[in-house]
Amino acid sequence: MGSKVIIISNANELVRVQPERVVYIMSDGNYSTMVLHDKTEHVFTLNLAHCQQLIEEQLGRGAETFIRIGKQLIVNRAYIFKININKQQLTMADMVLNDAFTLSASKEALKQLKVYLESTIGKEAKL
Fold first, then answer.
1. How far, CA to CA in Å, does 97 sit from each of 28, 31, 36, 38, 41?
2. What three-state secondary structure class fits 105?
3. Tell me: the pLDDT tens digits for 50-95?
4. How far apart are CA 114 and CA 25, in angstroms?
5. Nearest Cα to 77, choosing from 89, 58, 63, 87?
6. What are the residues facing 22 on neighbouring strands?
7. Up-side HSE of residue 63: CA atoms within 13 Å toward CB?
């Protein structure tokens, strides 16, 4: 991924960020908030589908780092630390800074994420 960046631009602002700094993007209708590992937040007037499309267009295969969870969340798989289906919580953590972000998601979305991650464990070990 190295030199690739995500660029999100709207009428008043342009943000250029390295994908590995993005922990998650959360949507609230037509607004999306990008949260970085240092807890910096950037709000855009884009829905989550548009954010997902921008990431895929700009990163190509590198976009696989990001996983869409339900209708309101895109997460960086590198930060996934803990999935608690019963509490409907997803803990995102930066192992270097020891910062943690606790997000809410539906049980079904978390179950799907858990199954997906479990199915990729063998594939990642081979890389």
1. 28, 28, 12, 9, 17
2. coil
3. 999 999 999 999 999 999 998 999 999 999 999 999 999 999 997 7
4. 19
5. 63
6. 36
7. 14
Q: Which residue in the block uniquely carries the two structure tokens 């996983």?
A: 67
Predicted pLDDT at 122 = 63
* H and E: helices and strands count for the chain: 2, 10
C-alpha torsion sign, points 93, 21, 85, 64 = negative
| Backbone Cα Rg of the chain | 14
- C-alpha span between 85 and 83 (Å, rounded): 6
Dihedral Cα 114, 72, 95, 123, nearest 10 deg: 40
Distance set, CA 60 to CA 7, 21, 63 (Å):
13, 17, 6
Segments in the chain forming alpha helices (H)? 48-59, 107-126
